[in-house]
Amino acid sequence: MNAYADTGFVVSLYKLESTSEKAAALMKKLQSTIWISTLSEIELRNAFQLAVFRGEIDKHSAQLKLQLFQQDLRNGNFVVMPVSSSAMHSKTTELIDRHSARIGTRSLDLMHIAIALLLKADAFLSFDLRQRKAAKLEGLKIKP
Fold this sequence. Notes:
Elements: E1 3-5, H1 7-11, H2 20-30, E2 34-36, H3 38-53, H4 59-74, E3 78-80, H5 85-103, H6 107-119, E4 123-125, H7 129-137, E5 141-143
Helix pairs in contact: 3-4, 5-6
């Protein structure tokens, strides 16, 4: 199975959240490389720094979490899949026109769906309810 993970899903594997247990269980069950994008890498780094700002973790913990993620990249748990930025922008624009006014989806969430669609992913890993709804409407299998 070719599964693409939204950043929120990935963050929950490194930072304790209400969804962390579900994310870990699904990773164990899938036992396959999870696709992410360069957008995911940027958002993940920012998520850890925002956690520092909010007082949820300290700077040292943020750095350790980033290092663990980078180790998982090297070990093949995740792979950054290349996608043309012009194709991603075009597909995201289509998704915005189809979903944002009806569902209330955010642009970055739709960018992830666009990337998953362009990569022809079989599954989309996310905990965001609006994003999951839009991805499902686009024909992606949603997990968990």
